[in-house]
Amino acid sequence: MSSKSSSSLSENNENLKQKIFVGNISYRVKRHQLQNFFQKFGKVKKAFIAHDHLKGWSKGFGFVEFQNTEGVDKALNATEEELYLDQRLMRISRAHPSWKDDLTVNDFPIGVFEIAGKAEESCSSVLSSSSWDADHVAEECLIHRLPNEILIEIFSFLNVRQLTRMERVCKRWREVAHTRFKLLRNLHFHDVFHTFGEGLTSRILSSVIQKIQGQLVELDLSGCNNLDFKTPVVIGHFCPNLEILNLDGLRQVTDKGVTVLGQGCPRLVNLILSGCYRLTDSGLSKLFSSLPCLRKLDMSSCSLVGRSLGRLSSSLQELNLDDCKLLRPESLGRLAAACPQLRLLSISRCSRLEGCCAPIIMTMLELQVLRWRDCPSLATLTATPPQTALLHLDLAESRGVDDADVVQVAAAFPNLRRLNLSLCRSISDLTPLSSLVHLRELDASYMDQVDSAALVDMACALPALERLSLIGCSVDSNDVARFSGRPLRFLDLSHCPLVDNDGVLALARQHDPQRHLEIVVGGTAVDAESLSKDLEIAASHLQFQTYTNCIKSDAMLISLVSNAVLSYLRFDQRFIIDDYDWWDEDDFESDEDYWVDDDDDMIEQHLDLYDEELEACQ
Questions:
Q1: What is Dmax (Cα atoms) for the chain?
Q2: Of the residues 168, 196, 301, 465, which has the fewest C-beta atoms closer than 10 A?
Q3: Stretch 102-125: mean pLDDT
Q4: Where do runs of H (alpha helix) occur along 19-168?
Q5: pLDDT tens readout for residues 392-428
């Protein structure tokens, strides 16, 4: 410690001998009243009452300094009756040293802390270093003794609410908290309802963002339902360097708000506006025109028609339009022309899109991932000669996809790595997929129309297949045994009641111990206890351990609990009608375009099918 700091410390200690601490002071008592009260014990030099530096309220404690130590001794020996002021019994004690800013970074070992706020070593390692008096620290070290640079590092472990509270402690901590706010680059308020009293509001958000002074890069406000239409305006005014923004579920966002947002945050790279159903193509067009750097966009569950997609940046790479019920087929043409670098497109459950959209998708030559659940048809897929670079195709829950579409998929996308055809109940033949030599993951769950032998033949013909899901299919133990020697790493046989111990045991005998394999057999005829014993005999080179829900080793994991119970109940989800109350009736051309399966006989037929399949699985 420097000589200057030592001399200052000694002077403070001398003054402490003439000073007392006074607690439980009435909030109505003023400084001069406190000073006059203690005059009866001795001549008072000065009195002090601590106040909140923001609201000016008394904190209920203070200090009284006498001219000599005799007044201190008389006050400490006073009776309780002599210490009543404004009907309150005050508590007094000798004043203790209060460390403020006596230490600087120069008092610590060189190279331990960086002024920029990043610590190379923790505070504990500094306090235990050889250049620090450990006994002195144990007796007298308080957090106030640490310099601002270390306090900033300590404050880095606090969240926004805690930082806001630290501002109310004292003026010094307020400055440190403000410095820490300026260093923040990411703010996450995901599902914050009661963190700030009644919830996060635009006013509170504005106060927090202004403290960061325009340096914010990432902001997550998903699920903060208390935020109103002013939120995008606040973000646009105070976050010029923002790159990642999540407004998922903010239903009060309007066209005017996102217009200001686009003008104030031109550097946005990742934008999530899912569930912002008040937005229209008019406001979105102005927003997209102001975002030249946008690469990822999520507009799921919005009411856009698609006219604004032509204004998207040419650098866009990922786009999510799931559940956009009003999206029209011609909007995909605008998207293909405006975004030549698009790599991921999700258009699941867009009820107005038809099979004629498939040729437009074929023109997206850079597209690698396509999620089109509830797809109507792909009959015209190969009408356009160019082949895309598609690697992942998800057509789950598509009742309109049939055997002809499977042939089209195999011919149009020869480089597929992942394919999901679960719940495509119109498909009866998957043999054309055997030409996909690069396919690594296939989901053929709940395809009861496909012959089990042909399904296994097709799977065994895929040389690169590693993950296979056959949930709810009619495969039996003989079919499972045919997977022996295949390079599978994951096999899901949930709800296949014909699978028993013999099939799993035959697969284990031929399994390569150097290759990990996970088998899910929930809802099958597999008996856990007997299977565990048989595996120890048949595969003695493997050390199996039996748990409550699975049999596990370094090379094989056989799960006895299904991870697809919810998936099994998803085939009848069309009977859960979405809420369209927030759309205008004029937006709908006719009820026939949107309300399907409303015939009583058809509903009864589907419910009977559901009961039969549920009994079969049980």
A1: 104
A2: 168
A3: 39
A4: 31-37, 69-76, 123-127, 134-140, 148-155, 160-166
A5: 999 998 888 888 889 888 888 888 999 999 988 889 9
- Can you point out the beta strands (E) in 399-525? 418-420, 441-443, 467-469, 490-492, 517-520
What is the length of the chain?
618
Please tell me the least confidently modeled range out of 58-62, 143-147, 202-206: 143-147
Dihedral sign from CA coordinates of 193, 196, 201, 204: negative
Q: Could you tell me the pTM of the whole model?
A: 0.67
Distance (Å, whole) CA 199 – CA 605: 47
- The predicted-structure confidence for 319-332, as pLDDT tens digits, reads as follows 999 999 899 888 99
Average pLDDT over the chain, rounded to whole?
77
Token code pair at residue 242:
């923002």
Q: Which two tokens stand for residue 137?
A: 């620290």
* Whether the Cβ atoms of residue 66 and residue 72 lie closer than 8 Å to each other: yes
Residue 332 CA to residue 550 CA, distance in Å, equals 46
Tokens of residue 527, six digits:
């008996």
Q: What is the pLDDT of residue 192?
A: 56
Per-residue pLDDT averaged across 355-368, rounded? 81
E-strand stretches of 321-406: 344-346, 369-371, 392-394
Strands 556-559 and 517-520: parallel
* Ramachandran quadrant class, 517 (left: phi over 0; alpha: psi -120 to 50; beta: rest): beta
How many whole angstroms separate alpha carbon 462 and alpha carbon 530? Answer: 32
d(CA 331, CA 309): 7
Report the C-alpha gap between 265 and 288 in whole angstroms: 11
